[in-house]
Predict the structure.
Amino acid sequence: MLYTLPSKDELEINFKNCNNWEEKYLYIIELGNSIPILSQQQHSFENFIPGCQSNVWISIIINKNKNVTFKGDSDSAIVKGLLTMIFIFYKKKNCYEIINFDIKSCFKKLSFDRYLTISRVQGIDVIIKTIKKKLIKFIFQLNRKDKIK
C-alpha cells in the first residue's frame, strides 16, 4: 500500500516520537512500504547496487531541469525503509544539490550511528556513493554533449 512520503522534517519528528529503537525499526519498515515501486524491468543490472548485503535496485530519473526522482526496491524490509529515507532526504533536490548534500548528517541526527549494524551503515554508504557516481556521470555526459554542439 502506497501513501504520501513524509517531508524530511515530518520524518525527523515521527522518528523522535518513537519510544524506543524497536518502534523506530517498525517505522523504518512502514516507510519501506511507501517506496515508489520498481517494475520487473527496472530490476535490471543497470539499476542494481553492488556491494550491499541485501539486493538493492535504484532507478534514477532526471528531468530537463536536472531535478531527480527515485524509485527503488530491496529484498530486505529494513533496507527498503532506509532507501525510502534516502529518497526523502534527497526529495526536491537537483543533481548538483544531491552531489553536495551531506546526507550522513541526516542519519547521524537520528542516531543511526548508534543503532544500525556496521554492515547496514556500510550498505547506506554504498547506496549514497552509487547515487552520487551516477549523477556525476550524468552531468559529465551532459556537459560533453553541450561541448560537442
The longest helix spans residues 118-148.
